[in-house]
Amino acid sequence: MIPIGIPALDEMLGGGIPPGGMALFSLAPGVDGQQLLYSALRSGHGLGRRCLVIVPYTTAGAYCADLSGTPYALSSEENLVFLDASAFDAIHGSRAATPSSEAGAWDDLVTSLAADCGIDTVFLYCNRICDALGTEEALSLFVGMCRRLGLTLYVEYLNLYDRDHLGALSAGIPFDLVLSAGEGFENFLFLNHFRIEHLSWTRAPDMPLPFVVGDDGYLIPYLPKIVVTGPVDAGKTTFIRTLSETSVSSDRISMSGSPTTVAMDVGHLHVTCRGFDLTLMGTPGQEHFGPIIRHLLTNATGVVFMVDGTSTASFGRARAILDEIREMDAPFVVAVNKGDLPERVPDRDLRVALSLPEETPLHPFSALDPDGAMGVLDALVCLITRSTDPA
Ligand SMILES: Nc1nc2c(ncn2[C@@H]2O[C@H](COP(=O)(O)OP(=O)(O)OP(=O)(O)O)[C@@H](O)[C@H]2O)c(=O)[nH]1
Ligand SMILES: [Mg+2]
Question: Which of 232, 233, 242, 310 to mutate to test the pocket of ligand 1 (most atoms within 8 A of CB)?
Fold first, then answer.
Protein backbone atom coordinates (compact mmCIF):
# COMPACT_ATOMS: atom_id res chain seq x y z
CA MET A 1 0.00 0.00 0.00
CA ILE A 2 1.13 3.56 -0.66
CA PRO A 3 0.16 5.78 2.31
CA ILE A 4 -1.49 9.11 1.58
CA GLY A 5 0.55 10.41 4.52
CA ILE A 6 -2.38 11.40 6.74
CA PRO A 7 -2.23 8.66 9.38
CA ALA A 8 -5.90 8.66 10.47
CA LEU A 9 -7.02 8.46 6.86
CA ASP A 10 -4.47 5.82 5.92
CA GLU A 11 -5.63 3.62 8.79
CA MET A 12 -9.22 3.87 7.61
CA LEU A 13 -8.11 2.90 4.10
CA GLY A 14 -6.20 -0.15 5.33
CA GLY A 15 -2.76 1.45 4.91
CA GLY A 16 -3.22 3.77 1.92
CA ILE A 17 -3.80 3.17 -1.78
CA PRO A 18 -2.84 -0.06 -3.55
CA PRO A 19 -0.22 0.41 -6.30
CA GLY A 20 -2.08 0.85 -9.58
CA GLY A 21 -5.11 2.28 -7.75
CA MET A 22 -7.13 5.24 -9.00
CA ALA A 23 -7.99 7.94 -6.46
CA LEU A 24 -10.18 11.01 -6.87
CA PHE A 25 -9.98 13.82 -4.31
CA SER A 26 -12.95 16.11 -4.81
CA LEU A 27 -12.80 19.50 -3.08
CA ALA A 28 -15.69 21.87 -2.46
CA PRO A 29 -14.74 25.47 -3.26
CA GLY A 30 -13.19 27.27 -0.31
CA VAL A 31 -12.33 24.08 1.57
CA ASP A 32 -8.73 23.52 2.54
CA GLY A 33 -8.26 20.15 0.91
CA GLN A 34 -5.31 20.63 -1.38
CA GLN A 35 -3.27 19.04 1.40
CA LEU A 36 -4.67 15.66 0.31
CA LEU A 37 -2.88 15.65 -3.04
CA TYR A 38 0.19 17.43 -1.61
CA SER A 39 0.44 14.76 1.06
CA ALA A 40 -0.04 11.89 -1.41
CA LEU A 41 2.67 13.38 -3.63
CA ARG A 42 5.09 13.82 -0.77
CA SER A 43 4.42 10.32 0.47
CA GLY A 44 4.75 8.62 -2.94
CA HIS A 45 7.82 10.67 -3.85
CA GLY A 46 9.39 9.89 -0.46
CA LEU A 47 8.95 6.18 -1.22
CA GLY A 48 11.00 6.60 -4.41
CA ARG A 49 8.09 6.48 -6.84
CA ARG A 50 8.57 8.19 -10.19
CA CYS A 51 5.99 10.92 -10.31
CA LEU A 52 4.37 12.78 -13.19
CA VAL A 53 2.62 15.93 -11.94
CA ILE A 54 0.13 17.46 -14.37
CA VAL A 55 -0.59 21.08 -13.40
CA PRO A 56 -2.34 22.70 -16.37
CA TYR A 57 -3.27 25.84 -14.42
CA THR A 58 0.23 27.16 -13.69
CA THR A 59 3.94 26.75 -14.32
CA ALA A 60 5.94 23.94 -12.76
CA GLY A 61 8.10 26.55 -11.00
CA ALA A 62 5.11 28.32 -9.43
CA TYR A 63 3.63 24.99 -8.31
CA CYS A 64 6.90 23.93 -6.66
CA ALA A 65 7.22 27.31 -4.94
CA ASP A 66 3.68 26.92 -3.56
CA LEU A 67 4.36 23.39 -2.39
CA SER A 68 7.66 24.27 -0.77
CA GLY A 69 5.85 26.79 1.47
CA THR A 70 3.84 23.96 3.04
CA PRO A 71 4.86 21.12 5.36
CA TYR A 72 4.40 18.81 2.35
CA ALA A 73 7.50 20.19 0.59
CA LEU A 74 9.43 17.52 -1.30
CA SER A 75 12.92 16.56 -0.18
CA SER A 76 14.40 16.71 -3.70
CA GLU A 77 13.47 17.17 -7.35
CA GLU A 78 14.59 13.67 -8.28
CA ASN A 79 12.01 11.36 -9.87
CA LEU A 80 9.72 14.28 -10.73
CA VAL A 81 8.38 15.22 -14.16
CA PHE A 82 5.94 18.06 -14.80
CA LEU A 83 3.41 18.80 -17.50
CA ASP A 84 2.31 22.33 -16.78
CA ALA A 85 0.32 25.13 -18.44
CA SER A 86 2.70 25.18 -21.40
CA ALA A 87 1.85 21.54 -22.22
CA PHE A 88 -1.84 22.31 -21.81
CA ASP A 89 -1.60 25.34 -24.09
CA ALA A 90 0.33 23.38 -26.72
CA ILE A 91 -2.45 20.79 -26.82
CA HIS A 92 -5.48 23.02 -26.32
CA GLY A 93 -4.25 26.17 -28.06
CA SER A 94 -3.88 24.73 -31.54
CA ARG A 95 -6.58 25.99 -33.90
CA ALA A 96 -7.33 22.48 -35.10
CA ALA A 97 -7.85 21.15 -31.55
CA THR A 98 -11.06 19.23 -30.88
CA PRO A 99 -11.88 17.35 -27.68
CA SER A 100 -11.05 14.07 -29.34
CA SER A 101 -7.75 15.28 -30.83
CA GLU A 102 -6.81 16.72 -27.42
CA ALA A 103 -7.65 13.42 -25.73
CA GLY A 104 -5.40 11.63 -28.23
CA ALA A 105 -2.59 14.13 -27.62
CA TRP A 106 -2.75 13.65 -23.82
CA ASP A 107 -2.74 9.90 -24.28
CA ASP A 108 0.34 10.04 -26.55
CA LEU A 109 2.16 12.42 -24.20
CA VAL A 110 1.55 10.45 -21.01
CA THR A 111 2.24 7.12 -22.72
CA SER A 112 5.59 8.30 -24.08
CA LEU A 113 6.60 9.94 -20.75
CA ALA A 114 5.70 6.77 -18.86
CA ALA A 115 7.97 4.78 -21.19
CA ASP A 116 10.84 7.30 -21.42
CA CYS A 117 10.97 8.35 -17.75
CA GLY A 118 9.72 5.18 -16.06
CA ILE A 119 6.77 7.04 -14.53
CA ASP A 120 4.71 4.90 -12.17
CA THR A 121 2.48 7.50 -10.49
CA VAL A 122 0.44 10.38 -11.92
CA PHE A 123 -0.84 13.38 -9.96
CA LEU A 124 -3.42 15.24 -11.99
CA TYR A 125 -5.03 18.63 -11.36
CA CYS A 126 -7.87 18.01 -13.73
CA ASN A 127 -10.11 21.08 -13.91
CA ARG A 128 -8.67 22.80 -16.98
CA ILE A 129 -8.58 19.53 -18.89
CA CYS A 130 -12.17 18.83 -17.76
CA ASP A 131 -13.20 22.22 -19.17
CA ALA A 132 -11.53 21.39 -22.47
CA LEU A 133 -12.68 17.78 -22.92
CA GLY A 134 -15.79 17.50 -20.73
CA THR A 135 -15.46 16.35 -17.11
CA GLU A 136 -16.51 12.74 -17.55
CA GLU A 137 -14.53 12.35 -20.76
CA ALA A 138 -11.36 13.78 -19.20
CA LEU A 139 -11.57 11.65 -16.06
CA SER A 140 -12.40 8.50 -18.05
CA LEU A 141 -9.46 9.22 -20.34
CA PHE A 142 -6.90 9.44 -17.52
CA VAL A 143 -8.34 6.50 -15.57
CA GLY A 144 -8.37 4.32 -18.71
CA MET A 145 -4.87 5.40 -19.71
CA CYS A 146 -3.34 4.87 -16.25
CA ARG A 147 -5.07 1.49 -15.90
CA ARG A 148 -3.68 0.42 -19.29
CA LEU A 149 -0.17 1.59 -18.41
CA GLY A 150 -0.29 0.21 -14.86
CA LEU A 151 0.18 3.65 -13.26
CA THR A 152 -1.21 4.79 -9.91
CA LEU A 153 -3.40 7.88 -10.36
CA TYR A 154 -4.38 10.65 -7.96
CA VAL A 155 -6.74 13.33 -9.24
CA GLU A 156 -7.66 16.61 -7.57
CA TYR A 157 -11.02 17.86 -8.78
CA LEU A 158 -12.53 21.15 -7.70
CA ASN A 159 -16.24 20.32 -7.51
CA LEU A 160 -18.14 23.54 -8.17
CA TYR A 161 -21.49 21.74 -7.82
CA ASP A 162 -22.70 19.38 -5.11
CA ARG A 163 -22.39 15.88 -3.74
CA ASP A 164 -24.98 14.55 -6.19
CA HIS A 165 -22.85 15.80 -9.07
CA LEU A 166 -19.85 13.95 -7.65
CA GLY A 167 -21.96 10.80 -7.18
CA ALA A 168 -23.19 10.89 -10.76
CA LEU A 169 -19.70 11.59 -12.06
CA SER A 170 -17.93 8.88 -10.12
CA ALA A 171 -20.66 6.29 -10.79
CA GLY A 172 -19.57 6.10 -14.43
CA ILE A 173 -15.79 6.03 -13.88
CA PRO A 174 -13.97 3.13 -12.20
CA PHE A 175 -12.13 4.99 -9.43
CA ASP A 176 -10.96 2.83 -6.53
CA LEU A 177 -11.24 5.67 -4.04
CA VAL A 178 -13.43 8.76 -4.14
CA LEU A 179 -12.76 11.09 -1.24
CA SER A 180 -14.59 14.38 -0.89
CA ALA A 181 -13.68 17.40 1.23
CA GLY A 182 -16.67 19.57 2.10
CA GLU A 183 -17.67 22.55 4.18
CA GLY A 184 -18.87 22.41 7.77
CA PHE A 185 -19.43 19.46 10.09
CA GLU A 186 -22.83 19.02 11.68
CA ASN A 187 -23.26 21.97 14.06
CA PHE A 188 -19.57 22.86 13.95
CA LEU A 189 -19.74 25.25 11.03
CA PHE A 190 -16.15 26.38 11.49
CA LEU A 191 -14.91 22.86 10.69
CA ASN A 192 -14.63 21.18 7.31
CA HIS A 193 -14.93 17.45 6.76
CA PHE A 194 -13.85 14.70 4.46
CA ARG A 195 -15.90 11.70 3.50
CA ILE A 196 -15.01 8.39 1.85
CA GLU A 197 -17.62 8.30 -0.91
CA HIS A 198 -16.41 5.13 -2.58
CA LEU A 199 -13.72 2.56 -1.81
CA SER A 200 -13.06 -0.59 -3.81
CA TRP A 201 -10.62 -2.59 -1.67
CA THR A 202 -12.01 -2.46 1.87
CA ARG A 203 -14.96 -1.13 3.87
CA ALA A 204 -14.99 2.28 5.48
CA PRO A 205 -17.58 4.29 7.38
CA ASP A 206 -20.01 6.30 5.32
CA MET A 207 -19.87 9.41 7.45
CA PRO A 208 -18.30 12.85 7.39
CA LEU A 209 -15.13 13.14 9.45
CA PRO A 210 -14.04 16.63 10.44
CA PHE A 211 -10.54 17.93 10.03
CA VAL A 212 -8.55 21.02 10.87
CA VAL A 213 -5.53 22.55 9.24
CA GLY A 214 -3.12 23.33 12.07
CA ASP A 215 -0.98 26.47 12.39
CA ASP A 216 1.85 24.36 10.99
CA GLY A 217 -0.15 23.74 7.78
CA TYR A 218 -0.80 20.02 8.32
CA LEU A 219 -4.26 18.61 7.75
CA ILE A 220 -5.33 16.71 10.86
CA PRO A 221 -8.55 14.72 11.22
CA TYR A 222 -10.24 16.00 14.37
CA LEU A 223 -12.98 14.69 16.66
CA PRO A 224 -14.36 17.90 18.15
CA LYS A 225 -16.51 16.73 21.02
CA ILE A 226 -15.71 13.60 22.96
CA VAL A 227 -17.86 13.81 26.09
CA VAL A 228 -16.77 12.03 29.26
CA THR A 229 -19.70 11.47 31.58
CA GLY A 230 -20.83 9.27 34.47
CA PRO A 231 -21.80 9.52 38.13
CA VAL A 232 -20.02 11.62 40.72
CA ASP A 233 -16.52 10.37 41.61
CA ALA A 234 -16.38 7.97 38.64
CA GLY A 235 -13.00 9.51 37.74
CA LYS A 236 -13.96 11.72 34.77
CA THR A 237 -11.75 14.68 35.70
CA THR A 238 -8.87 12.32 36.51
CA PHE A 239 -9.25 10.63 33.10
CA ILE A 240 -9.11 13.95 31.24
CA ARG A 241 -6.13 15.16 33.26
CA THR A 242 -4.26 11.89 32.68
CA LEU A 243 -4.73 12.12 28.90
CA SER A 244 -4.49 15.82 28.16
CA GLU A 245 -1.45 17.97 27.81
CA THR A 246 -3.61 20.95 28.68
CA SER A 247 -6.88 20.74 30.57
CA VAL A 248 -9.14 23.12 32.43
CA SER A 249 -11.56 21.96 35.11
CA SER A 250 -14.18 23.84 37.06
CA ASP A 251 -13.80 21.83 40.27
CA ARG A 252 -14.87 23.10 43.69
CA ILE A 253 -14.39 21.47 47.07
CA SER A 254 -17.61 19.60 47.84
CA MET A 255 -19.26 18.97 51.22
CA SER A 256 -17.20 15.79 51.58
CA GLY A 257 -14.03 17.87 51.29
CA SER A 258 -12.96 16.47 47.91
CA PRO A 259 -13.09 18.33 44.58
CA THR A 260 -16.13 17.90 42.35
CA THR A 261 -16.79 19.29 38.89
CA VAL A 262 -19.47 22.00 38.81
CA ALA A 263 -19.55 22.91 35.10
CA MET A 264 -17.26 20.96 32.82
CA ASP A 265 -13.72 19.79 32.16
CA VAL A 266 -12.08 20.51 28.82
CA GLY A 267 -8.96 18.72 27.66
CA HIS A 268 -7.10 19.07 24.39
CA LEU A 269 -5.16 16.03 23.49
CA HIS A 270 -2.06 16.97 21.60
CA VAL A 271 -1.01 13.40 21.43
CA THR A 272 -3.20 11.98 18.73
CA CYS A 273 -5.27 8.84 19.06
CA ARG A 274 -5.13 6.80 15.83
CA GLY A 275 -4.09 9.96 14.01
CA PHE A 276 -7.06 12.00 15.25
CA ASP A 277 -6.81 15.16 17.33
CA LEU A 278 -9.50 15.26 19.98
CA THR A 279 -11.17 17.61 22.39
CA LEU A 280 -12.42 15.93 25.56
CA MET A 281 -15.27 17.50 27.51
CA GLY A 282 -15.99 16.16 30.98
CA THR A 283 -19.37 16.66 32.60
CA PRO A 284 -20.08 17.05 36.30
CA GLY A 285 -21.49 13.90 37.92
CA GLN A 286 -23.66 15.29 40.70
CA GLU A 287 -27.36 14.78 40.19
CA HIS A 288 -28.34 18.45 40.43
CA PHE A 289 -26.07 19.20 37.45
CA GLY A 290 -28.11 16.80 35.30
CA PRO A 291 -29.19 19.53 32.82
CA ILE A 292 -25.52 20.32 32.11
CA ILE A 293 -24.96 16.67 31.16
CA ARG A 294 -27.82 16.73 28.67
CA HIS A 295 -26.54 20.02 27.29
CA LEU A 296 -23.00 18.72 26.84
CA LEU A 297 -24.17 15.46 25.28
CA THR A 298 -25.90 17.37 22.50
CA ASN A 299 -23.96 16.87 19.24
CA ALA A 300 -21.32 14.72 20.92
CA THR A 301 -19.07 13.01 18.38
CA GLY A 302 -18.66 10.16 20.87
CA VAL A 303 -19.10 9.47 24.57
CA VAL A 304 -16.95 7.82 27.23
CA PHE A 305 -19.47 6.60 29.77
CA MET A 306 -17.53 6.10 32.98
CA VAL A 307 -18.56 4.20 36.05
CA ASP A 308 -16.60 3.46 39.23
CA GLY A 309 -16.47 -0.34 39.11
CA THR A 310 -16.12 -0.53 42.90
CA SER A 311 -19.14 1.61 43.79
CA THR A 312 -22.45 -0.28 43.64
CA ALA A 313 -24.05 2.76 45.27
CA SER A 314 -23.44 4.77 42.08
CA PHE A 315 -25.01 2.27 39.68
CA GLY A 316 -28.55 3.72 39.91
CA ARG A 317 -27.30 7.15 38.88
CA ALA A 318 -25.07 5.53 36.25
CA ARG A 319 -28.10 3.82 34.74
CA ALA A 320 -29.99 7.14 34.47
CA ILE A 321 -27.02 8.80 32.69
CA LEU A 322 -26.65 5.82 30.37
CA ASP A 323 -30.31 6.13 29.39
CA GLU A 324 -29.68 9.77 28.43
CA ILE A 325 -26.72 8.77 26.27
CA ARG A 326 -28.80 6.14 24.53
CA GLU A 327 -31.49 8.72 23.82
CA MET A 328 -28.89 10.98 22.18
CA ASP A 329 -27.85 8.13 19.90
CA ALA A 330 -24.13 8.97 20.04
CA PRO A 331 -21.50 6.19 19.81
CA PHE A 332 -20.33 5.34 23.35
CA VAL A 333 -17.96 3.02 25.21
CA VAL A 334 -18.47 1.77 28.77
CA ALA A 335 -15.33 2.47 30.82
CA VAL A 336 -15.22 0.71 34.17
CA ASN A 337 -12.80 2.74 36.27
CA LYS A 338 -10.68 2.09 39.37
CA GLY A 339 -9.52 -1.27 38.12
CA ASP A 340 -6.46 -0.89 40.37
CA LEU A 341 -8.65 -1.39 43.46
CA PRO A 342 -9.46 -4.90 44.69
CA GLU A 343 -13.19 -4.38 45.32
CA ARG A 344 -14.33 -4.48 41.71
CA VAL A 345 -17.90 -5.65 41.21
CA PRO A 346 -18.18 -8.68 38.85
CA ASP A 347 -19.03 -7.78 35.24
CA ARG A 348 -22.21 -9.84 35.44
CA ASP A 349 -23.61 -7.68 38.29
CA LEU A 350 -22.61 -4.48 36.51
CA ARG A 351 -24.39 -5.60 33.34
CA VAL A 352 -27.57 -6.36 35.24
CA ALA A 353 -27.47 -3.03 37.12
CA LEU A 354 -26.97 -1.04 33.90
CA SER A 355 -29.06 -3.26 31.58
CA LEU A 356 -26.04 -3.79 29.35
CA PRO A 357 -26.31 -6.66 26.87
CA GLU A 358 -23.43 -9.14 26.44
CA GLU A 359 -22.47 -7.64 23.08
CA THR A 360 -21.65 -4.25 24.63
CA PRO A 361 -17.96 -4.50 25.60
CA LEU A 362 -16.87 -3.35 29.07
CA HIS A 363 -13.48 -1.63 29.30
CA PRO A 364 -12.00 -2.11 32.77
CA PHE A 365 -9.14 0.34 33.41
CA SER A 366 -7.69 2.86 35.83
CA ALA A 367 -7.89 6.56 35.04
CA LEU A 368 -4.61 6.98 36.92
CA ASP A 369 -2.80 4.90 34.29
CA PRO A 370 -2.12 6.71 30.98
CA ASP A 371 -2.02 3.49 28.94
CA GLY A 372 -5.33 2.30 30.37
CA ALA A 373 -6.96 5.68 29.76
CA MET A 374 -5.62 5.77 26.19
CA GLY A 375 -6.99 2.25 25.64
CA VAL A 376 -10.50 3.49 26.46
CA LEU A 377 -10.14 6.41 24.06
CA ASP A 378 -8.73 4.14 21.38
CA ALA A 379 -11.79 1.87 21.65
CA LEU A 380 -14.07 4.88 21.22
CA VAL A 381 -12.16 6.31 18.25
CA CYS A 382 -12.34 2.88 16.59
CA LEU A 383 -16.05 2.70 17.24
CA ILE A 384 -16.62 6.16 15.71
CA THR A 385 -14.33 5.83 12.71
CA ARG A 386 -14.58 2.12 11.88
CA SER A 387 -18.35 1.75 11.93
CA THR A 388 -19.47 0.79 8.44
CA ASP A 389 -23.17 1.40 8.96
CA PRO A 390 -24.62 4.15 6.82
CA ALA A 391 -24.66 7.48 8.70
N1 LIG B 1 -7.76 4.28 43.05
C2 LIG B 1 -8.23 5.04 42.06
N3 LIG B 1 -8.76 6.25 42.31
C4 LIG B 1 -9.21 7.00 41.29
C5 LIG B 1 -9.13 6.54 39.95
N6 LIG B 1 -9.67 7.50 39.15
C7 LIG B 1 -10.07 8.50 39.95
N8 LIG B 1 -9.80 8.21 41.23
C9 LIG B 1 -10.08 9.03 42.43
O10 LIG B 1 -11.49 9.17 42.53
C11 LIG B 1 -11.82 10.46 43.04
C12 LIG B 1 -12.81 11.14 42.11
O13 LIG B 1 -12.14 11.43 40.89
P14 LIG B 1 -12.60 12.61 39.90
O15 LIG B 1 -11.75 12.47 38.71
O16 LIG B 1 -12.63 13.92 40.60
O17 LIG B 1 -14.07 12.14 39.65
P18 LIG B 1 -15.20 12.88 38.78
O19 LIG B 1 -15.89 11.80 38.04
O20 LIG B 1 -14.60 13.97 37.97
O21 LIG B 1 -16.13 13.44 39.92
P22 LIG B 1 -17.24 14.64 39.81
O23 LIG B 1 -16.63 15.76 39.05
O24 LIG B 1 -17.51 15.00 41.23
O25 LIG B 1 -18.43 14.06 39.15
C26 LIG B 1 -10.52 11.21 43.21
O27 LIG B 1 -10.10 11.07 44.56
C28 LIG B 1 -9.57 10.45 42.28
O29 LIG B 1 -8.22 10.52 42.71
C30 LIG B 1 -8.54 5.26 39.71
O31 LIG B 1 -8.42 4.77 38.59
N32 LIG B 1 -8.13 4.56 40.80
MG1 LIG C 1 -15.04 15.95 37.84
Answer: 233
Q: Are 178 and 27 in contact (CB under 8 A)?
A: no
How far away, in angstroms, is 335 Cα from ligand 2 center? 15
Is 236 touching ligand 1 by the criterion CB < 6 Å? yes
**Residue 267 confidence (pLDDT):** 63
Q: How far apart are the first and last CA of the chain?
A: 27
pLDDT tier, 300 (very low <50, low <70, confident <90, very high otherwise):
very high
Instruction: Encode pLDDT of 141-188 as tens digits.
Output: 999 999 999 999 999 999 999 999 999 999 999 999 999 998 877 777
SS3 46: helix
* CATH class belonging to 7-217: alpha beta
Q: How far is 226 from 272, CA to CA, in rounded Å? A: 13
pLDDT at residue 335, as a whole number = 98
| Domain 224-386 belongs in CATH node 3.20.20.70 | no
Phi and psi torsions of 116, nearest 5°: -70, -35
